[in-house]
Amino acid sequence: MEKIKVLFASPEVMPFGGTGGLGEVAGSLPRAVNQLKGSNIECRVIMPLYGSVKEEYRKKMTFLGHAEIPVAWRSQYMGIFQLKKDGVVYYFVDNEFYFKRDKLYGFGDDCERFSFFSRAVLESSKITGFEPDIIHANDWQTALSTVFAKILYKDKGIKTVFTVHNVEYQGRYGTQMLHDCIGLDEQDAHYLLKDGDVNLMKGAIELTDTFTTVSPTYAKELTYPVSAFGLDGVIRDNEYKFTGILNGIDTVSYDPTNDPSTEASYSAEKLQGKKRCKRALQKDLGLAESDAAMLTMITRLVAPKGVDIVAEMIDDLLYTSDVQFVMLGTGDEKYEEFFRQLQYRHPEQVRSLIEFNTATAHRIYAGGDMFLMPSRSEACGLAQMIACRYGNVPIVRLTGGLADSIHEWDGKEGNGFTFYDFNGQELSYAVHRALDLYGHRNKWRVLVRHILDEDFTWERSAKEYYRLYTELL
Fold first, then answer.
1. Whole-prediction pTM value?
2. DSSP assignment of 38-74
3. Which CATH superfamily is domain 4-248+459-472 in?
4. Domain definitions of the chain by residue range
5. What is the pLDDT of residue 185?
């Protein structure tokens, strides 16, 4: 059977470079699709060759060739490097002017940089020899690859998939970019125009064969003005080709039975190691090595993550309950300062780690009892699934992927504690329900064992994308 060739285009791919969930997805989903039993799909990945890509990976790359490719009215150098890892072929688009920088995004010429990358996605086959049947583009940075496929390369007959990971960032620019960077004729410009601006994500949604987002509930939320940041009308108009597919997690990187960052290994069958992980974390952080419930947060300190409602209730909880609280993350200065002051007010109970360190995050997942994730909005979320993987019971607000992955524990079914109304009081109620169960240690262990056996692997998501790809052709 002839294989279906999918080129997965992403502006970030872990472990080569990433800033968040998109990098995790791009580093896991293509591998999971390729590994499906009986799969006739070969999924390869293409990303920019950023300056931050580590030397250990560069040494293993093979240079395939170079070409000049059009960027609106001019041509730019494109080099292609290849690396095979874990059964996946990765292509890296080289252009030092655009990509040899100290971070991935946030530059004044981002529209030009990713217009170039999107053209490179279509032009790369001249060097790689990999002629895709499907291009799967991700977020605004690769949105133009779907637009170009349908307008400039329509004779190739390439099918396209576009995934919205975060609708808040749409790639909005002034209309001069149509001529300066994108290079579309006037008769095609309307696909990209919205509210007087160029909107790259809007163009992708209009022109792609099908588009997805990272959870079924988030897909529903994006049809409402309150969640879609102005794109709800465009999404409703194209809802017939829209679906939500819940992400998974990398269960090799996140594995309590074999995690070099944690004090001990454990599983649902052998739970003793989890207590050792808690004691080690308490000792490392200078907290009392007690059986007090340890509440944890690993988050970006920004408003959509629900930090405000944590601030509403956390002092009262600490004053009235025998709990410890450990937070890891960075973000807005006002929130960083709040958590510094929280530790100052409660030095025996609180540790606010204003940093991000992967090994520390693993130790907190393993050592914690409860994991707070009270997001105002959350397209999918991975942290709640990782918390389950480590037996750290999630307490979440029912939004986006949190609503699809975490359900209230009733003694037999469910995997956490949930609330809906976005305020500190509702969050506090959910925490106290968890604390009440924690007071009955045998019942608590039943829940911990249950969530340790939850299936958040990528296989489930990969099967849905497999179906999507095959139906397209």
1. 0.92
2. T--EEEEEEEE--TTS-HHHHTT-EEEEEEEEEETTE
3. Glycogen Phosphorylase B; (3.40.50.2000)
4. 4-248+459-472, 272-456
5. 87
